[in-house]
Design a protein that fits this description.
With 195 residues, this protein is mainly alpha-helical. 66% of the residues lie in helices and 0% in strands. The protein is globular, with a radius of gyration of 17 Å.
Length: 195
């Protein structure tokens, strides 16, 4: 697997093809998911070829947004993986494992193994981090730009619903991120109780 060449290829495509209206799902989000998934691999004891598979899935997990639509971006990302990765020495098994990870990030998340749990937790890691509010604001602005949410009240209600249903999957994020996520949820519940 020629990971470094793949990384260069997909980052160039994302930089050139992603809409500037993707204030949340931009290249910065892909880089964040790559960073966190690499850390989670180390924390969860993932080694060797599986680390490369996770990192590749992180790079492609939102690549389908090059089509500039929210619905179906996971399937589009898998299509891109199947099209591009054979030329970089990725086997059919590697590609299916990577597509499994990408598809697991579809909301509601549905991981069925540790690698899928890692990518899911990396994708939504910010829910339990100190940058929860600014990242959430970028998602709100993006959803408004795409006419997927009406106003701040609807957004805060959606966040309460989303945070209530969400769960971290890896032991690492259950320990590191869940407590802060619960604090944010309580604050948002108090906020919408005033509406």
């Amino acid at each position: 697997m020629q990971y470094n060449a793949v990384k260069k290829y997909i980052i160039k495509r994302l930089r050139e093809e992603l809409s500037t209206e993707l204030l949340y799902h931009g290249l910065h989000h892909t880089r964040d998911v790559l960073r966190v998934s690499t850390q989670l691999c180390a924390a969860e004891g993932v080694r060797g070829k599986d680390v490369t598979r996770v990192k590749t899935a992180a790079l492609f997990h939102d690549a389908g947004f090059v089509k500039n639509q929210h619905a179906g971006h996971e399937q589009e990302g898998c299509r891109m993986v199947r099209e591009a990765l054979p030329a970089y020495g990725y086997s059919p098994t590697d590609i299916e494992v990577i597509c499994g990870m990408i598809m697991a990030t579809k909301i509601p998340q549905s991981p069925s193994n540790l690698l899928e749990e890692i990518i899911c937790d990396a994708d939504l890691d910010y829910l339990g981090r100190g940058d929860f509010y600014p990242i959430g604001e970028s998602l709100f602005e993006e959803l408004q730009a795409y006419h997927l949410i009406s106003d701040e009240q609807a957004w805060n209600r959606l966040q309460v619903s989303f945070l209530s249903a969400h769960k971290f999957h890896t032991q690492t994020n259950k320990t590191l991120r869940e407590p802060a996520k619960q604090v944010y949820l309580k604050k948002l519940e108090q906020l919408i109780a005033k509406y």
